[in-house]
Amino acid sequence: MAPSDSDFGMSRRTLLRTSALGLVTAPALAACSSNDSPALVRQRPKLTHGVAVGDPRTDGALIWARSDQPATLIVETAATESFTDAKRFTGPLLTPAADGTGRIRVAGLPAGQLVHYRVTLEGEDGATSEPLTGVFRTAPTMPGDIKLHWSGDVAGQGYGSNPDLGGMKIFATMAARDPHLFLHSGDAIYADVPLQESVTLPDGRIWRNVVTEAKSAVAQTLDQFRGQYAYNLTDQNYRRFNSTVAQLVQWDDHETVNNWYPGGTVAADKGYTERSMDTLATRAWQAFHEWMPLDPREAVDGRLYRKISYGPLLDVFVLDMRTYKDANGANTAPDGRIFGPAQTKWLIEGLRDSKATWKIVANDLPLGLVVPDGKTAFEGPANSNPGAPSGRETEIAQVLSAIKANRVGGVVWLTADVHYTAAHHYTPEKAAFTDFDEFWEFVSGPLNAGAFGPNTLDPTFGPEAVFVHAPPAPNTSPLDGAFQHFGEVLIDGGSRELTVNLCDAAGTVLFTQRLAPSR
After folding, report:
1. What is d(CA 357, CA 157) in angstroms, rounded to the nearest whole number?
2. pLDDT above 80 (res 232)
3. pLDDT score of 231
4. What pLDDT was estimated at residue 308?
5. Global pTM?
6. CA atoms within 13 A on the CB side of 442
7. CA dihedral (45, 49, 50, 55) positive or negative
8. If DSSP codes are grouped into helix, strand and coil, which group holds residue 425?
């Protein structure tokens, strides 16, 4: 067990060194600072969990941080790491109301440029924190090479940050490839899966975890949900990745509870005293938006779904397939919901109006994979019925038909959720429903969790599993990294060709698919 959450006395250097060994948990936020210390002693605020970048634009990005006491967020940006002629941005006061977290959108920066940024905190008495630095790239206005990574599933199935392995090394692997963007496809935490200090694997080997109080029980209170995010950021690989790669984040089910949907109830045997999924989701959403580098005010619905434009070659449509879905069941109703009417309309019109060469749709649930919830219910759009679209598939059919009718080219779907990697090619010639143009959906994950699969494909939209990399046994551990995955999208600025690489935790490319731009 790591030290208690009230341990504030470490310097930044000690914090980084000990967290690399898995010895530090999230410092709790002091409610106030002026009356807790002797007079005349100024206690410097601390940046407790690194810094992060999100949702870049042509002129800037969101910068996220957390303080251990009430303090003002200060961000400086410059063209070089010397911070000559730095531009200064004063952010909000970080307070206990948001668990000490906050973000500021830096703006007015040059397009298509590498930006160095430096974050400090200014306490109410004028004392300042030690700085933390990072980099990001503003979106371009001219065609150029783009590299995007995506994946999901962190600290799941009882596998957290393993100090024997140096933590979650897959984030170091991705950082070394220097992507412009990282699409986090959901299950950023496993709020419903506590960690133990050790797990004995089927072959007798031992998986060891860094463990904190918040990760020792299922999350039900707001503070417990917050603690899930704090736990992940004790991992030095994750923190360093966050500081240098701009993220586009979305959520799935484990940010709340397994297979949650609006109006649902947690099963009585899962150890929950609060069984209302709506109540848990409200607390989960607050913690998610506090601890992740996004601003809900910039989303279409004031929550999550949104479009991120990254120059003339790329638009990313980030979906929310949780908040508006109907109840998990047989999934055969004639008017099923997975996006909801407003999000469906937004996606259709956004794809129609996009001028980007490539339109990536970030779907946190796979389109054609059958994802069961128990023996008779279904979690995603697919319902294992080989006929015409029914249930949630009807909204998928609306979107696919509109893409064809509006003659939208260059649409690629990226997802995670199922804990293996795959390439799916959908063609109307093989489908029960034929009113769509062929397209690709690529699956990646997990980042640091048990590996599973493969799942069955529903034939309604004619998918073919062109490539699958899944473990030989369910819940294979991340110990060797063979079945931990991330995906990589490369867009060539000259030819406009898009290449997808499916990779393992070491960065080995397992499969490659090249796609030509639409005329």
Report:
1. 38
2. yes
3. 98
4. 98
5. 0.92
6. 27
7. negative
8. strand
Find out whether 258 and 417 touch, Cβ atoms under 8 Å.
no
What's CA 45's distance to the chain center, in Å?
28
Dihedral sign, Cα of residue 61, residue 65, residue 71, residue 77:
negative
Contact 428, 462 (CB under 8 A): yes
Task: Extract the tokens encoding 507.
Answer: 């960065």
- pLDDT, average across residues 340-357: 98
Q: Strands, DSSP E only, in 70-165?
A: 71-78, 87-94, 101-106, 114-123, 132-137, 146-151
3-state helix, strand, coil in the chain (%, to 5): 20, 30, 55
Mean per-residue pLDDT over the chain, rounded:
93
* CB-count burial class (<10 Å; 0-12, 13-18, 19+) for 176: exposed
Candidates 305, 326, 327, 324; CA nearest to 316 is: 305
- pLDDT, position 22: 34
The answer to whether 103 and 121 are in contact (CB under 8 A) is: no
Determine contact, residues 153/187, Cβ cutoff 8 Å: yes
Judging by DSSP bridges, how do beta strands 132-137 and 87-94 pair with one another?
unpaired
Q: Compute the half-sphere exposure of residue 112: CA atoms within 13 Å on the CB side of its CA.
A: 11
Name the residue among 378, 377, 369 with its Cα closest to residue 459.
Answer: 369
Instruction: Give me 46's structure tokens.
Output: 């601390």
For residue 72, the number of C-alpha atoms closer than 13 Å in the C-beta half-sphere is 12
pLDDT at 26 (0 to 100): 42
Give the bridge partners for 373, in sequence order.
377
Cα–Cα distance for residue pair 493/143, rounded to 1 Å: 5
* Distance set, CA 512 to CA 67, 420, 487, 488 (Å): 42, 16, 10, 9
SS3 362: strand
CA count, 13 A, side-chain hemisphere, 206: 7
**Who's near 318: CB < 8 A, 6+ residues apart?**
183, 248, 249, 250, 304, 305, 306, 307, 308, 362
Q: What pLDDT, in 10s, does the model give residues 449-502?
A: 999 999 999 999 999 999 999 999 999 999 989 999 999 999 999 999 999 999
DSSP 431: -
Strands 87-94 and 146-151: unpaired
Question: Which residues, in sequence order, are CB contacts of 280 under 8 Å at separation 6+?
Answer: 219, 220, 256, 257, 260, 266, 272, 274
Q: What is the pLDDT of residue 42?
A: 66
